[in-house]
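Dear support,

Our group has been running a series of protein-ligand predictions, and this particular one with zinc ion is the one our PI (initials K.S.) wants archived with full inputs and outputs. We had some confusion internally about which version of the output was final, so please treat the block below as the authoritative record. The input we submitted was:
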Amino acid sequence: MSVSRNVDYLLRPSSDLQLTAAYPVNPRRGTAIAIIVVYCILLALMTLPYLRTFQVIQTNPGYIRRGPHAQRDQPPSSSSTEKQTFQRSCAPTTIEERPPKPHSRSRSRSHSAPHRDLDRKAIFDGTVAPPPGLERFYAKDAFVCDMSGLPIFCPKCDNWKRDRTHHCSEVGRCVRRMDHFCPWIGGIVSETNLKFFLQFVVYAALYTLFMLVVLAVFVAEQVRIGLGRDAWLIGILVCSATFFFFAAGMSGSVIQMSLRNYTTVENLFKGNKTYFIAVYTGPQTPQAAMERPLYPTVTYPLRPTPGADIRQFAILQTKPGENPWDLGALQNWRELMGYSWLEWLLPIKYSPFCKHGARYEYPFGPVLDRMRREAGLSSR
Ligand SMILES: [Zn+2]
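Confirmed final output from the archive:
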């Protein structure tokens, strides 16, 4: 509305303004066309990532599958929708989305304790079977764990939490690389849509900045030539300024955290936080197995069967405040936005970090290399 008023003012200033005003105002066709073109481009650039963010929230929000006990509490309709959502999931290696194996249910009913109260001692003693899904962790070379070497467990979802997963109380689900719950887009900003959300707030900041500048120029000109202040334009100008500062602030915040590879949740609680990380020690020689290691270890499977691949993990701890996933600003940015300018600018592809690797859930940075060296697990 404000743009059409301004363009109309540029194209067809009243004859009074052209002939009698102290500062004659002539038609400015070129300026009007430029404003319309830039306005339409910015509007499209802002709208596309917003729609993409909304679409991803509906189809692939990055939820972790609930465990069997939690699922029993769900109404049938909810489970059906959930299953369909996971079937549409994009992430190529999101193995949680697969239905549980047929043997899991009967085994857990007969032997396992209620998963809401994970009894670690009983699990290590062998008197209680661990909740299913541990093999998805110890198949990797490193994963976040607790002091005992077990992955972090969410009692509400009744399932193990993949690295950087956070339980969102708004939706009652564990969410991969959850950033924050955003009422403006009606859902969770997480690993699957953080890139599109960032594009949206950046373009929204540019759009509102453009509106702000154009309106400020017009209001100033109208005051200068004696037309007085147009209350409608001033109202739009104030709204543009408000949304600009909000969008610019949000853009700056997300960019700053992304360059350091923090989610909003992680950034809030980083302080002196430390992580325990189970790090694969590599094949064990008989001699090494006899030596007492410098670090606590955990060996998987917890109850090995004949012929099973035994994997020993060192339980290492980061220093307070360290971010083990910090890859450096440029690589952090690429892992979020992609590896080409086109991916940075347009909401087409998912972030590269959605493709969870076989060795790590998310790539670890130099912090883990240093921890390996200090533990004598690597000479690099
Ligand atoms: Zn949870």
